Task: structure prediction
Amino acid sequence: MTEIMNDQEAAERIAQGVPIMEFEKVCIGFEQHQVLKDITFKVAHGETRIILGPSGGGKSVLMKLANGLLQPDSGDVRILGWSLQKMNQREIFAVRAHIGMVFQESALFDSLNVEDNVAYRLEEEHVDRKEIHERVVEALCFVELEKAIDKFPSELSGGMRRRVSIARAIISKPDLILYDSPTGGLDPITSNTIVELVVKQRDVSHTTSLLITHRLQDAFTMATHRYNQELGHMEKIPDGGIDPSTKFLVLNEGRVVFDGATLELTHTEDPWLKYYIS
Amino acid sequence: MRLASPETYAKSFVAALQEYALLCGRAIGDLFSKPRYLDDIFIQMDSIGVGSLPIVVLTGFFTGCVLALQSATSLKEFGAVNMTGRLVALSMVKELGPVLTGLMVSGRNASGMASELGSMKVSEQIDAMRALGTDPIRKLVTPRIVATVVMLFFLTIISDSCGTAGGGVVAVGLLHLNGHTFFTTAYLTLKMGDVVEGLVKPLFSGFIIATIGCYYGLKTTGGTRGVGKSTTQAVVASSVAIILMDFLVTQLMIGIFGR
Result:
C-alpha cells in the first residue's frame, strides 16, 4: 500500500478527476448511540467543503473518520479512491502524509516550541535540517507569525495557536486539509484573521479542504470573499459574486440534510435549513 | 451511583486485559521494524535512569543499613553475628534490591508516563500525532519500554551495591563488626543463581512499569480529573504487578537453581 499511495500515483488520480475524498453510506455509533447515519458525499479536487450543523451533530466525528482516526461501523471512506477500511494501520499512516489537519483546540505539542511543532512532519520524514528551517519560516510567514518561531505554545494566545496549527498542517503541502472548527472559541476579529488565512490557502495554493464551523458568518465570508495576492488581504468578490469552489454540507442529527453550492443553500425551501441559516 | 453487575465488570476487565496485551504486542513488534526513535530512547533513558538515581541510591543504602541492624540483633542471639554480611547481601541481591527499585521507579515513572501521555490524550496531542503520520505507540510507548527495561537493570545493580555498602557501614560503624568479614561473607555467599534471579526481576519490572504507565496514559478520558485517576491507577497496578511478578519469578528461579 505504501507503494501505491505515492505522490506520483496520487497526482495521476487527481488528474483523472478521482474525488479527493468520498464518503459512501458511512455509519458510526458509540455505546448504542448512532452518531452518523448513511453519510454520503464527495469532495472534488480544489473544492472547499464547509460543514455546518448544530453542536453534537457528528461533525468532528466525520472529520476524524476522514483522517482514519476513527473507523466507521459500516460504509466506506475513500481518499483519492483508496478505501481507508481496506488499509492496515501502517498504510493509513502513509495516507495521512497527504492530509493536513487543524484541530479544534489546536493540539500543539506543548513540550515543543513553535518551530519544532511546525517542523514535526518534516522531521519525521528526515528532511534536511536547513530545508526544514526554510520551510518552517515560509509556513510561519504565510500565517504571519514568523516572530513567534522560538516561543512555546503556552506563551501564545488562542488565535496564535490556531495559526501555528494551520502552519503545521500546510507545511508538507498536503492534497487535503481538514479544519476542525478553526475559529471556535475565538473573538470575531481573530476569527476573521483565521478565515482570511483559510481563504488565502484556498486561493493561493488551491488546496482541497474540509472545514467545520459553527459560525455561519465565517462560512458565508468564505463563500463571498477572495484573497487578493497583490494587495495582500481578503476582499469581497465584486458584483455579489460567489466563490464556485466553496460548497456546503449540512448535518443534523447525524444525517446529511444539505449537500450543494452556496446559492442552493441560501435559496433552500427546506423549513429546518431556512430556520438554521436565518 | 449504580453498581456495575459482575458480568459487566468481568467483561470490562477482560476487554482491558485484551487492550493491554495488544498494546504490549504492538510495542514489542515495533522494535523490529523502522522507523525507530533512538533519540527518544536516549531521552527516556536519561529521564528514567539518571532521574531515578538519587531515590534508588538512597533507598538501597538505607535499606541495607536497616537490614544490617535488624539482622544483627537477631543473629546475635544465635551467636552468628558474623553472618550479617551474608544475610544483607542475599536479601539485597535476590529480593529487596530488585523489588524496592522496581517500586521506587514505578512510583516515579509509571505515574510520570501516565500523566504525560494522559495529558497528551485529553488535549488531542495523541490524535494530532496520528494525524501527522506518526504512530504514537512506536514514538511514545516503545522507547519508554526499552529505556525502562535497560535502565532498571542497571539501577538494580546500583541499588544492590548501595544496599550492601549501607549494611557494611552499619556493621562496621555501629555494630563494630569486622569489615573484611562482612564483605567476604557477603561475596562468598552469592551464587550464580542468586545473581541471575536478582537481575532477571528488573527486566520484567521495567516492562511492567512502562507498559502499565503508557496503557493508563493512552486510555485517559475525562480531562484533568481523568489524568489524575490514570496516574493513580498506573502506580497501583504496576506496584501490585511487580510484587506478583516477584513471586512468580522467585518460584521459577527456585525451580531452576534450587535455591
